Amino acid sequence: MKISSHAFVLLPALIAAVISSPVVANTNATRTSISIVQSEVNSKERFSKLTTQTSRELTKVRSGLVAYYLSNMNWPSALNNIKTDNRYNGSFKTPYGSITGRPSGLGYQLIITLPTNDKQSRRIAQLIAAKSSGENNNNSVTVFVGVPTAASLVSGLLSRKYDPRNPDANKMSANLDMNNNNINNINVVNTNALNAQTVTSNSLNVTGNTNLGGMLNVSGLATINSLTARGNATFGNNVTINGATTTESLLVKKTLVAQGPVSLHNKLTVNGTTEFKDLVSFKKGLVVDGTTTVNGNLNLSKGRTLTADKIATKNLAINGTASIKNAIIDTLKVNKSLNFSGEIKQGRNIVVSRTGELYEQGIRLSNRYARLDQATTFQKDVTFNDNTTFKKLATFDRLTTNYLTTNSLEIILNNQWVNVASKLASYNTELNNQRTDINSLRSNYSSLNQKVTTESNNIKTVTNTINQYNSRITTADSNAKRALSIANQSFSTAQQAKTTSTNNANSIVNINSRVASLQRFEQDCRAKRGVCY
User: Fold this and answer.
1) The dihedral of CA 355, 360, 362, 365: what is its sign?
2) What is the Cα–Cα distance from 396 to 411, expressed in whole angstroms?
3) pLDDT per residue as tens digits for the range 308-327
4) What is the pLDDT of residues 188-241, one digit of tens each?
């Protein structure tokens, strides 16, 4: 009976012993630790992703601010203006709050304020500031956007838009050279004087002097007090000139009325009626298809035509038709004075031009020798072998000298005259500003480098901790496998014990049955007082 009792209680005791063994207990604790570590790692990864996303959005907004400033030369009055100006296409929203902004001194501040001011929010603000090169104050992140470096370089340039804080940005303080390029879509031009090579206009009304350096094309009516054109002048309608007229060539397709002296260096063509009321001087040709009347030295009767290629005369009266192509004179004797409106040549070389300029061996004297009474422009390189003093402004395309003394020196920079002293002062100011920026960047770099080192050490610490936990997880898995193997062996042993116990119990039942039968047999024998076999 004792054997039977121990046999039946063996399996529960063995299972309890296995469950309460140190191996199984350590396995459960390890799994709990693993769960805690994994939760912490997931939380840090989530914070890292969200702070990186916030930093990237700050960078996008900062880029939009810089683009807006370079386009408008001013910070936006409201941060949303960079979106309406197509400089930013986001929503200003981040995982930790919306981005706001305001001007700050010469720069601009971008701000994110986290909803709460607890320890975790302050830590998140610190991470965002580190990734965005900003600063954090408790749960607030501030990123400062400075004036772009390019803005200082264009501070002296002409602004495309009106800046109320800098109205002089739309004013020129020096001559503007377009380098043979056009200016298009002009509404109104207000000017004191206009000098042009070519002017094309439907209607021209000039009450003062008009000096043109090139061609003048007018398709409408023209009323001019005084006309001076160093190029060609073409009028498609009636022309009235109240003052003096000086031009290379003049083409009038209708009526021409000149109240004052007229001086033509080239050709005059009039398709309609022409009336001159003062002295007329032709340096080259005259073609008149209609009626021309000159009240000065040249008189053309009504209904007559004059065609002249070259003419040398001061007083000329023509009542009929005259055609003069050239004049050849073998001998010319002048007792008093001789006036030429054409050229004087020696062989093929010109000696005196139509405008009275002197030539030497075919080269204009003004190009060969410098004049002392007016400004001189040299067409080739000039070498001065001794000290040279310029009393007034001197302009050089290239100057080579051993020593230079001057009160003011200007050079051409980007197609504009620039004062060297002012430019050097500007460069020195810009250089000092750049040095200040470099020192600031060095300071920021040192701070950021220290932060990077700290974060790297933190990452190494977390990595070591994770590696330790991974090692413990590996050990726990190995222990769990061994515990499972022991449990399987124990369960198999318990099954065998149970089978043996069942067999023993059946044997005991049989034995007890036989004992009971023997006991009854013995009792029967004793009752009969006989012999029991």
Assistant:
1) negative
2) 9
3) 444 444 445 444 444 444 44
4) 777 766 676 666 666 666 666 666 666 666 666 677 777 777 667 777 777 777
Q: Where are the beta strands (DSSP E) in 116-260?
A: 135-137, 140-145, 195-196, 199-201, 204-212, 216-218, 222-235, 239-241, 245-252, 256-258
The 10 Å Cβ neighbour count of residue 282 is 24
Q: Where are the domains of the chain?
A: 40-153, 205-324
Nearest to 394 by CA among 414, 378, 413, 373: 378
Burial class (CB within 10 angstroms; exposed 0-12, middle 13-18, buried 19+) of 466? middle
Classify 511 as helix, strand or coil: helix
Name which of 397, 393, 490 is nearest 17 in CA terms. 490
Shortest CA distance to 275 belongs to which of 319, 238, 227, 226? 238
Which amino acid does the sequence have at 14?
L
How far is CA 272 from each of CA 247, 264, 438, rounded to the nearest angstrom? 19, 18, 74
Backbone torsions φ then ψ of 493, nearest 5 degrees: -65, -40
Locate tokens 């007034």: which residue? 392
- Most confidently predicted of 206-220, 261-275, 461-475: 461-475
Indicate the residue type of 240. Answer: T
Mean pLDDT value of segment 75-93? 93
Q: Are 178 and 196 in contact (CB under 8 A)?
A: no
For residues 245 and 258, the answer to whether their CB atoms sit within 8 Å is: yes
DSSP state of 358: B
Q: CA-to-CA distance for 408 and 261, rounded, in angstroms?
A: 43
Burial of 177 (0-12, 13-18, 19+ CB in 10 A): exposed
Give the closest residue to 326 by CA, choosing from 311, 341, 315: 311
10 Å Cβ neighbour count for 88? 21
Q: Give me 216's structure tokens.
A: 């003048």
- Cβ partners under 8 Å of residue 66, min gap 6: 145, 148
Let me know: does 286 contact 266? Beta carbons within 8 Å.
Answer: no
Element (H, E) at 374: none
**Do the bridges between strand 239-241 and strand 216-218 make them parallel or antiparallel, or are there none, so unpaired?**
unpaired
List the structure tokens of 448: 């950021």
SS3 285: strand
Task: Look up residue 454 and give its amino acid.
Answer: T
The whole-angstrom separation of Cα 276 and Cα 295 is 6
Q: How far apart are CA 207 and CA 199, in angstroms?
A: 17
C-beta of residue 237 within 8 angstroms of C-beta of residue 201:
no
From residue 429, alpha-carbon distances to 160, 266, 424 in Å are 25, 55, 8
SS3 call for 14: helix
User: Helix (H, G, I), strand (E, B), or coil: what is residue 100?
Assistant: strand
Please say if the pLDDT value at position 110 is more than 90.
yes
Residue 262 neighbours by CB distance under 10 Å: 26
In the chain, helix, strand, coil percent, each to 5? 40, 25, 40
Q: Is 229 exposed, middle or buried (0-12, 13-18, 19+ CB in 10 A)?
A: buried
Asked whether the beta carbons of 360 and 368 are under 8 A apart, the reply is: yes
0.85 exceeded by the pTM? no
